[in-house]
Amino acid sequence: MDVNKLVRMANQIAANFEYGPDKEKAAASVLDHLRRFWTPQMHTEIIEYRNRGGTELNEIAAAAIAKLAEEKPRAA
């Protein structure tokens, strides 16, 4: 899948959960959505984008993907 599309989708999901002052809660909601609805391949691609220094993720999406990256073992 095109990583730019994944970035756009992650930012849109984050925008839907970004209400109120609790950014940590919003990031947790985005993380839950990514776990439930994105495929393992999508996870890998967005994590690799982030690890390469991708800068187009908004604050909430970036925080959720950072937590997702902590959960996923690196490929050997």
Please describe what this structure looks like:
The chain has helices at 3-17, 23-37, 40-51, 59-71. Helix 1 (3-17) packs across helix 2, helix 2 (23-37) packs across helix 4 (59-71) and helix 3 packs across helix 4. The two termini are 22 Å apart. With 76 residues, the chain is mainly α. It is built from 4 helices and no strands. The longest helix is centred in the N-terminal third of the chain and has 15 residues, at 3-17.
Largest sheet: none
Share in helix: over 70%
The residue-averaged pLDDT reads 93
Q: How many strand elements?
A: 0
Global structural class? mainly alpha
Taken in chain order, the helices and strands follow as HHHH
The percentage of residues in β strands lies in under 5%
Distinctive features:
mainly alpha; 76 residues; single chain
How would you summarize what this structure contains?
The protein has 76 residues and is mainly alpha-helical. The chain has helices at 3-17, 23-37, 40-51, 59-71. Helix 1 crosses helix 2 (23-37), helix 2 packs across helix 4 (59-71) and helix 3 crosses helix 4.
List the helices and strands and how they pair.
Elements: H1 3-17, H2 23-37, H3 40-51, H4 59-71
